[in-house]
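Notes taken during the Thursday session

The instructor put the following on the board and asked us to keep it in front of us for the whole hour. The protein is TonB-dependent receptor. We were told not to look anything up and to reason only from what is written here. First, the residues (665 in total):
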Amino acid sequence: MANTDGEALRTEQVLVTATRSPRDALRLPLSHSSVDADAIDLTGAIHINELMQRVPGSWISRGNGQESLTALRSPVLTGAGGCGSFLMAADSISLRAPGFCNVNQLFDANTEQAGRVEVIKGPGTALYGTSAMHGVINVLSPTPAQMPEQNLSLEAGPNDYYRGSYHYSGTQGGHGVDLRINGSTDGGYLDDAGYDQQKLSLRHDYSGAVWQFQSVLEGSNLNQETAGFISGYKVYEDDDLRRENPNPEAYRDAWSVRAYSQASRDLGEGMTLQITPYYRNNRMTFLQHFVPWQPVEDNGHESLGLRGLLQGDSGNLTWMAGAEAEFTDGWLTEIQDGDFSPNQPAGVHYDYQVDALTAALFTQLSWQLAERWTLDGGLRYEDTRYDYDNRTGDGDACAPTASACRFFRPADRSDSFEDVTVNVGLAFEYRPRQVLFLRAANGFRAPETSELYRLQAGQQVADLDSEQIDNIEVGLRGDVAGALSYSLSLYHMRKEDVIFQDADRFNVSGARTRHRGAELSLDYRFLEQWYAGLDFSVAKHSYDNNPQLLGVEESIAGNDIDTAPRRFGSARLGWQGQRAQAELEWVYLDKYYLEPTNSFEYDGHQLLNLRGSLALGQGLSATLRVTNLLDEDYAERADVGFGEYRYFVGQPRSVYLQLDYRLGG
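Then, after some discussion, the predicted C-alpha cells were revealed:
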C-alpha cells in the first residue's frame, strides 16, 4: 500500500529526494510522501493520476490518453508556467531541461515499473533549482536484486486495452542489473482515440575497490490519437454524447531518451565524492487541436549535464556542497497547413532555436543540535542563460493586410536570469518517534523559452522576471506503537512575479497568488492483516492582486484560482494475507471553479476502486482491478472555452485482469 510519511517511519525507511542520498525520513523538517513498489504494483496505474492519488496535496488531472496537468500544493496549472512550476525528475535528474518543459512530461518516466515515487511538497531543498517551486516529483529506479529474478506480466482491459511487461533483476560478481520493459495499447473510450506506448529502464550498479557506479538508461515512446474536449453543460452525463470526439484528426507523438552514470567514492574522514554526467533527448510532435486554426507543433531538445557533489559526515554535522552545469540545444516550429484567416495564415508561424546554459552552486547541511533537535539549512545560486536564434523572418507571421496578426517572431536576442534560494528547517522529537517540524523556504523558476520567444499580437520583447515563491509550514509526523503512523502539515505560500498573458495577449510578469492549506496522511494496521489509509488535503489557492488577465475585465483579487478544488484526497481499506490481498479505495474531488471570475463551476465527484491479487501457485498470480466501481458519470477535467462548459470525460466502470509469472527471487 502507499508509503506515505507515516509508513516510512514505521518501517524506518529512508527518503532520497531531499538530499540525493538515503536519509532517515522521520527527522527531515519538510513535507514529503512516497509511494513504494508494492503500492505501484497493486495500483497497476493506467495513468499516473491513479498512483498520485496516494499523495496528499497532489492531483494529476487526466486529459485524454496519457496527457495530464499537475496540481501539487497548487491549482492545476496550464501552459509553460504550468509545467515549469514543478520539478519532475527521474533519480533526481529533471525529466526535461530547464526552460523546455511540457505539461505532459510525466509520461516520459517509467512510473509503471518504478522502485518508488518520492514527492517533496513546497519548494525543494537547495539541491534543486528552477521549477522546484510547488514541489518535486522524483521517480526512483529500482535497486538490482541480490538473487536473480524474472517477472512476466500480461494484462487486458476494456476498449481493446492490452499491456505487457518484463522485468529481470540480479547481482553477480559486483555487477547488479535491473531491466524493465513495458508496452501498452489502448483503443480508447472515446471515438477515434487511443494510444500505443512503450517504455524501457535499464540500471547497472557496480561496486569496485575504490569507485561505485550507478548507471541508468531510460527511453519512452508514445503514439497517441488524441480526443479533445466535448462541449455542453454536464455533457459527460449524456450517454449519447459522452463518447464523441470533436477532434478525430488530433494526435501526439513523443519520445525521450535519458542516461546518466553516477560515480562515487569514499575520500576518508567521513567524506564522499559523487560525480554524475548525464544526457537527455526529447522530441514531440502534435496537432494543436485546442485552437481553431490547428497548426502542427514540433519541438525538441538535447542536453548534456554534469553534477559534482561532496558530502561530509562529522558526527553531529552532515553537509553537502556541489556544483552543476547543463547545456541544452532546443528548438520549436509551428506550421499551419491551410489558411484560417488573415490573422492566422497558413505557413510558418514560429521556427526558432535556443542554446541554454544553466549553472548552479549549492550547499545543504543537517546539524544535530542535541539528542532530539535537528537543524537543516541550504543555499543555492543559479544562473540561467538563453541564446535565441529566430530561423524565420522577424516580426509578424502575417501579410501586411492582417488587422491583428496572432503570431510575432522576435529578433535574435540573449537573456539571462540569476536566482538565489534559501531554506531552513527545525525538527524536534518531542516523544520517541514523534516529531514536530518548522520550515521556511523559497523557490523560483526562470521564464520558459516559449514564454520569452513565442510571442503574439505584436509583442516585440517579453521583459519577464523569474517567478518567486515563499513558503512557511509547520508539521507533525510520527509512529504510534508501530500500528498508526501519521503526518500533518500546515502551510502558507505566497507567489510573486507570476507570468501571465494580459488583455493584449502579451506575456508579462506581475501577478501574485496565495496558497494556504493542510495535508493529512494516516496509515493504520489492525487485526494483524487489515490496514486503512487516508491521504487528504484542504487548501485555498487564490489571486492576491488584480492582474489584467486575457478575457477578464473585472476584479478577481481574492477569487479562487480556476481548477483548484478546496478539498480532495483518497482513503483505502485493505486486507493482506500471505497469498492474497484486497483493497477498496475511495477517491474524493471537491467542486471547483473553471475560470478566474468564479462564474462557472464543476460539482466534483466521488469514486470507488477495487483491487485484489491472488497467488495461484508455481510463480503464477492474478490481479483484478475494477475502477469506478459504482459506474459514476464524472469528468476527469472540467473547463470553460469561449463561454461554454467543456470536459474530458471520465471512463465508466472498467475491469482489468492481469496475470504475472515470477521466476526466482
